[in-house]
Design goal:
With about 475 residues, the chain is of the alpha+beta class. The chain has helices at about 45-60, 75-85, 95-105, 115-125, 130-155, 165-180, 195-210, 220-250, 260-270, 280-310, 310-325, 340-355, 435-455, and strands at about 15, 20, 20-25, 60-65, 70-75, 90-95, 360-365, 370, 375, 380-385, 455-460, 465-470, 475, 480-485. The N and C termini lie far apart (about 55 Å).
Length: about 475
């Protein structure tokens, strides 16, 4: 791969068949400590903010020196897009991340590489594609109405609503329903164990990623044993879903030819010896779907609600658009209505620009290559800040402001003007997030229901909302209360 940035030209150099202007050693770098370099700064629940500070100071391509090794940090949009599109052949996930995730039984397509990834990707994408999501739409309407009833009841009774908790519960209900064919109604189960287990796993995964020494591989604290139990509990829950699905498919053999959900599709594939799809891969991808489908979508909605509450003009514009499309309906009951909400889509894109739930990713090069006109040796670790341009005035003037209008154009924008080529919240290329379409549909459903029925009232006494990095970045709170809109 050769993805050039807009950096000034340097003297050309050559190594073998590669032509480049610099090596990683030529890149600027933050000053580190003797021997350990920048190691001590590569941790903490706000490391993504440290990374953003470094990008502002050192530019879109720089290095980190860590324990005698040189790591590359990349945030130039063109170079980032090129790298993401060169996966899985050119780059892979780092082994440390895969190991940490595997210890908590998070595997499947998200950690697979090469041919294993291609095999698993086909099945996971097939279970979450646009046709499947559209067929699932009536169930999503019912789940959205369930949340609406919960919130209306709480407002009528004067009870405080924990929006972050409810958003996570709804996201869990949606992914378990579409992927597993089960209705667990976590929305109305305040003590839902699966939701607690997922929260526990992500908190521990985040803490482990922020810890310099992997002590838990030698001795385990109570929090580590609790996380292991949560991982085991989710595995057992998924095994139960698989058992139920196999019994259902035995009674309805036609489901093998026309599966009703992702789990049934994976079971049908695992029973075909020519597919090479094993029971373990089935279980791993089912667990990955449940865990990954809850946290990212819920945090995206939580950030969006916070930003809308802080920007009443944007909230009013969104309410006007939703009112015009939904009319008297309290939720979007027709699939086609979701296509008539450009401002809502723009508000989501602007939220991802300002508060991406996955602001950076770690990769390693599979071979010697050139990235951003820089020679990168095989096995070099690269931190990709896939929203690195989001705080750059050259790409987004008045970048600190929440302005959904940035994403709305008359006609198709040029490549240089297109903001979607500067921010990559779902990745890019063949490894684009398989749950992207489902997540966007769910976000539209919930936000349309929210602004159609309620006003967003920020809590003036609440402390500032912090950005907290577990595996993904979520808000420390959603200090927003709901007030029924007058009809």
């Amino acid at each position: 791969m050769d993805a050039n940035t807009s950096a000034p030209p340097l003297d050309a150099k050559r190594m073998g068949t590669f032509e480049f202007s610099r090596t990683i050693a030529d890149l600027p770098a933050p000053k580190g400590l003797p021997f350990v370099g920048s190691l001590l700064k590569l941790s903490g629940r706000q490391f993504h903010l440290t990374l953003a500070d470094w990008i502002r100071e050192f530019g879109p391509v720089f290095r980190l020196d860590v324990m005698g090794h040189q790591l590359m940090v990349l945030s130039d949009p063109a170079a980032v897009e090129g790298l993401l599109r060169d996966r899985p052949d050119g780059f892979r996930r780092t082994s440390n991340l895969k190991t940490s995730m595997g210890e908590l039984k998070i595997a499947g397509v998200i950690t697979a590489e090469g041919d294993d990834w291609r095999k698993q990707r086909r099945l996971v994408m097939g279970g979450l594609n646009a046709e499947v999501v559209r067929n699932f739409f009536p169930t999503m309407v019912a789940i959205t109405e369930r949340v609406l009833l919960r919130w209306k009841t709480a407002v009528a009774e004067g009870r405080r609503i924990d929006l972050h908790r409810d958003l996570k519960a709804m996201a869990l209900d949606v992914i378990v329903a579409i992927a597993m064919g089960q209705d667990i109604d976590a929305v109305n189960d305040d003590g839902n164990q699966v939701q607690r287990d997922i929260d526990n796993i992500f908190q521990r995964l985040g803490a482990r990623n922020a810890t310099l020494l992997p002590y838990w591989r030698y001795f385990k604290l109570p929090v580590d044993r609790a996380a292991d139990k949560s991982a085991d509990d989710i595995e057992q829950a998924v095994i139960g879903f698989v058992k139920d699905a196999r019994e259902r498919m035995a009674q309805q053999p036609q489901l093998r030819q026309k599966p009703g959900n992702m789990l049934e599709a994976m079971i049908a594939a695992s029973e075909n010896p020519e597919s090479g799809f094993t029971d373990q891969e089935l279980i791993s991808n089912a667990i990955m779907s449940v865990i990954g489908g809850e946290d990212t979508t819920a945090n995206s909605m939580a950030w969006m609600i916070n930003l809308l509450a802080q920007n009443p003009e944007a909230a009013a514009a969104l309410s006007a658009e939703v009112d015009a499309v939904l009319g008297d309906a309290p939720v979007a009951r027709e699939w086609e209505w979701l296509k008539q909400l450009p401002y809502l889509e723009a508000a989501h894109s602007e939220t991802q620009r300002l508060r991406a739930v996955a602001p950076f990713m770690g990769f390693a090069s599979n071979a010697d290559c050139v990235v951003a006109d820089t020679f990168v040796p095989k096995d070099t670790v690269i931190f990709v800040a896939n929203t690195g341009a989001s705080q750059d005035e050259a790409h987004f003037p008045q970048h600190a402001l929440f302005r959904p209008e940035r994403w709305i154009f008359d006609g198709k924008p040029s490549r240089e003007e297109d903001p979607s080529r500067k921010v990559f919240p779902f990745g890019a290329g063949s490894r684009l997030c398989p749950g992207r379409f489902l997540a966007l549909t769910e976000i539209k459903m919930v936000l349309a229901m929210l602004v159609r029925n309620f006003e967003l009232v920020p809590d003036p006494d609440a402390p500032p909302v912090e950005q907290l990095l577990n595996f993904f970045v979520g808000p420390s709170a959603v200090p927003v209360q709901l007030k029924l809109r007058a009809r």
